[in-house]
């Protein structure tokens, strides 16, 4: 059952990506979907769901709500594989290209930051995020990631819910506002 649901999510992401991409990009996307599924196979999130559910949800947000293309989707999926240590950045550069690799590296740098939520530190964090993101898609992907986290906040223990909510309100919602992503900003605040 779990494999069927995962396969359905993969197919849905591919279907949603079709209108935004050229056929050759869709072939690369298929390869990245397979690579991510293999690299994250058997890994579970804290709530017991397959680890791949989260990057698939983030990718779907990136496609449907931000209109990012296959390069960004590949980076979202492969970033998680690098993040958990099942794939090397050298592999990504070799198999998927330097553009995807640069986005993955940017996402990993931002993921390594420990956000602080007092006002001065929040301003500094937002500036660090912007400076680490040599490609603006990195910031957009990070916002899609946080949006999925907030949509699934109920899956976290209460302490993490409070911490993630505070970070989101102080750090990510203002960043979405600065980028003109008002719908995402409003949902993050809610």
Distance between the termini: 33 Å
Mean pLDDT: 87
Characterize the biggest β-sheet.
Answer: none
Shape: globular
Share of helix, binned:
over 70%
Keywords:
globular, mainly alpha, single chain, 190 residues, 0% strand, 74% helix
Characterization of the model:
It is a single chain. The chain is mostly helical. The protein has helices at residues 2-17, 23-39, 53-64, 70-83, 89-96, 98-112, 119-132, 136-151, 158-178, 182-189. It is globular, with a radius of gyration of 16 Å. The mean pLDDT is 87.
Could you give a short description of this structure?
The chain has 190 residues and is mainly alpha-helical. Helices cover 74% and strands 0% of the residues. It has ten helices and no strands.
List the helices and strands and how they pair.
Elements: H1 2-17, H2 23-39, H3 53-64, H4 70-83, H5 89-96, H6 98-112, H7 119-132, H8 136-151, H9 158-178, H10 182-189
């Amino acid at each position: 059952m779990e494999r069927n649901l995962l396969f359905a999510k993969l197919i849905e992401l591919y279907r949603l990506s079709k209108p935004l991409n050229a056929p050759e990009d869709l072939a690369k996307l298929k390869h990245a979907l397979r690579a991510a599924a293999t690299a994250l196979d058997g890994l579970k999130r804290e709530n017991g769901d397959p680890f791949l559910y989260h990057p698939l949800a983030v990718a779907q947000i990136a496609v449907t709500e931000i209109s990012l293309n296959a390069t960004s989707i590949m980076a979202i999926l492969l970033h998680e594989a690098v993040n958990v240590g099942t794939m090397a950045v050298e592999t990504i550069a070799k198999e998927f290209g330097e553009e995807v690799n640069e986005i993955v590296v940017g996402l990993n740098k931002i993921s390594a930051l420990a956000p602080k939520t007092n006002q001065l530190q929040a301003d500094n964090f937002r500036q660090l995020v912007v400076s680490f993101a040599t490609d603006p898609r990195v910031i957009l992907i990070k916002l899609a990631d946080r949006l999925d986290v907030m949509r699934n906040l109920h899956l976290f223990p209460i302490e993490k819910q409070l911490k993630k909510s505070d970070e989101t309100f102080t750090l990510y919602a203002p960043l979405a506002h600065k980028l003109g992503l008002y719908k995402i900003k409003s949902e993050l605040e809610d």
